[in-house]
DNA sequence: CGCCGGACTTGATTCCGGTCAAAGCCCGCT
DNA sequence: AGCGGGCTTTGACCGGAATCAAGTCCGGCG
């Protein structure tokens, strides 16, 4: 058990899960931990693509700016998620920390060399990328076809599940307090809505007794079944 | 040059591009060509995931049905595109031919075995999946933030580019006749709009002299720059 | 050649979510 | 505790796309 196991947080969910000890040692030599403050960016769209990373803690977003100026978040990154696009020359999206976050950074070139020498690593990354593609396609369906309330319900359910998986406090139990990693503006950017609409829809869910809020970031799911029904409704 | 090279259409863009002759022979032994009529489906969401395939000709769509009944197309598949999700147990989306199409099918288990034995294959699939993820994320931005006219312009430009790349007749030249692989309904499913809105927006583009239509499927881009400007506009 | 059916277009109206504007509230700071 | 500023809520109004409802056109077939 070398130190890199910690670095990758949850051993069996991380990229490094299947590596032998020699490879783990090599990875730990290549990786560099870095803390990010909330709002701090790791890279911007168009930058030279020089790094890959693993999320150790916190939540980050992947986003693009439209030519006309408003933002669309195309993905959220939780602990054990992978950052970066091997083999590409430039970076496709901004990556910004939503909360305080910590990542384990690898320079892209040596990371690619590690992949060539450890096929398990490449295989892990392939499976992960396929899942991410699937996740992204499911979100396409939300943005293309679902109402504001269904989108919001979907986001809340997704956050709840991801927070529970990464052991960041939440649990699937009813009434558990979840600390939202996003502001209203950031939620609007994910959902393809405006901040006002997000606020109104949260209000409706509260009025219906489906959720309760606590301060700006705190949230409790009181009626999971109702929330799921709203997500599935058109 | 074994027969499989034909199967994969464009050698250097296909999955098999980097395989040695022995592996190519093996691939050709495993693959089975299949023709699909327009409208015919290869698989449905929820099916057991038993196959992978390469698109040889024609255009197919990847789509999901919302619980409430309407369809969202989450991706279009052109010649040399890969179909399937190795390592997954079930199928995530319906796959349906939009035009007459031809695919080269592999059973999933032997395909995965081939991947394990030919790391170039795995590497190719990884790069391809990363590109596809990027494509999907860019489309998220369209569905989340763009108006009907910008979405339509984006789709037309994408179709034009993909048809040109796959040598299916179109060319980037002004006024070239493109045969649209989709009906209005199918365009609406991709764009997250209704058929009426698609029709109206096509009308506007015609009135503005940006495009011209020829029958139901024929289309000419008369002012590429204007079309691109509309795509980039909010 | 004319008919038929499905795809497409066009028009009238409705409604969801955006926009603009004005409070209200949380929370860190002094 | 009091204050200030940014985040959030709430309200009035507007507009773009959906919906509902006729038509019209293309293309295949007898």
Automatic annotation (TrEMBL), chains A, B:
Pfam families: cNMP_binding (PF00027), HTH_Crp_2 (PF13545). PROSITE patterns: HTH_CRP_1, HTH_CRP_2. Keywords: DNA-binding, Transcription, Transcription regulation. Residues 146-225 form the HTH crp-type domain. SUPFAM superfamilies: cAMP-binding domain-like, Winged helix' DNA-binding domain. CDD domains: CAP_ED, HTH_CRP. PANTHER family: CRP FAMILY TRANSCRIPTIONAL REGULATORY PROTEIN (PTHR24567), FUMARATE AND NITRATE REDUCTION REGULATORY PROTEIN (PTHR24567:SF75). This is Crp/Fnr family transcriptional regulator.
């Amino acid at each position: 058990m070398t130190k890199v196991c910690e670095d990758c947080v949850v051993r069996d969910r991380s990229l490094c899960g299947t590596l032998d000890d020699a490879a783990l040692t090599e990875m730990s030599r290549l990786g560099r931990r870095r803390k990010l403050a909330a709002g701090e960016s790791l890279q911007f769209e168009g930058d030279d693509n020089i790094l890959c990373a693993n999320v150790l803690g916190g939540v980050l977003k992947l986003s693009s700016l439209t030519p006309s100026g408003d933002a669309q978040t195309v993905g959220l990154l939780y602990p054990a998620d992978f950052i970066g696009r091997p083999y590409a020359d430039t970076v496709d999206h901004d990556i910004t920390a939503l909360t305080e976050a910590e990542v384990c950074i690898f320079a892209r070139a040596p990371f690619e060399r590690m992949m060539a020498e450890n096929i398990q690593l490449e295989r892990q990354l392939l499976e992960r990328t396929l899942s991410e593609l699937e996740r992204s396609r499911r979100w396409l369906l939300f943005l293309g076809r679902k109402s504001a309330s269904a989108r919001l319900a979907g986001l809340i359910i997704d956050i709840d599940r991801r927070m529970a998986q990464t052991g960041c406090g939440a649990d699937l139990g009813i009434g558990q307090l979840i600390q939202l990693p996003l502001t209203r503006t950031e939620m609007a950017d994910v959902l393809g809505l405006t901040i006002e609409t997000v606020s109104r829809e949260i209000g409706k869910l509260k009025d219906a007794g489906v959720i309760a809020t606590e301060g700006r970031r705190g949230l409790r799911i009181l009626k999971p079944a109702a929330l799921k029904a709203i997500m599935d409704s058109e």
